[in-house]
Fold this sequence. Notes:
17% of the residues lie in helices and 28% in strands. With 149 residues, the protein is an alpha/beta fold. The N and C termini lie close together (10 Å).
Amino acid sequence: MRLAIISDTHMPRGARRLPDACVAELARADAILHCGDWMRREVVAAIAALGPPVHGIRGNVDEPGIGLPDRLELELAGARIALVHDPGAAKGRLVRLRAWFPRAHAVLFGHTHLPQHETDGGFQIFNPGSPTERRRAPRHTMGVGTIAG
C-alpha cells in the first residue's frame, strides 16, 4: 500500500498551491494522510477530489468546524498508524509519541514544518514537513510511505 503523507499546507494564502509533483504523488497513492493545518474545508475537499481516500486531523490554524478530529488512529493494510498535529517539544518526542499512542506502529505528525523520521525497533515517528510553507526547512517536502507485509 502506497501512502502520500502531507502536513501544514496552509491554504489558501495568496497564490499558494500544492506543487505539481506533490499533486501527482497524492493522486497515485492508495491513501492520503494529512497531519493538520489545512486551514479551510475547501482544501480538504480539493485534496479528497484527487481520488484516494483521505485521512486527516485538525491543526492549530484550521477554521472552526473543519470537521476533523484532533487525533486519529487507523489501520491500513495491517499497520496501525496514528496522526497528531502538535507532537510537543523535540526532546523526548519519540518516547512521548509512543506513550500517547501505545498501539501504533507509526505516529505521523506536523506543526514544526521540519521533516523528521526516527525509528526505535518496530516503532517510528514521521513528519513530512510542508509542501507549501517550508519555514526553516531547506525545501518544501512531503512523504511517501509503503506498507508491505
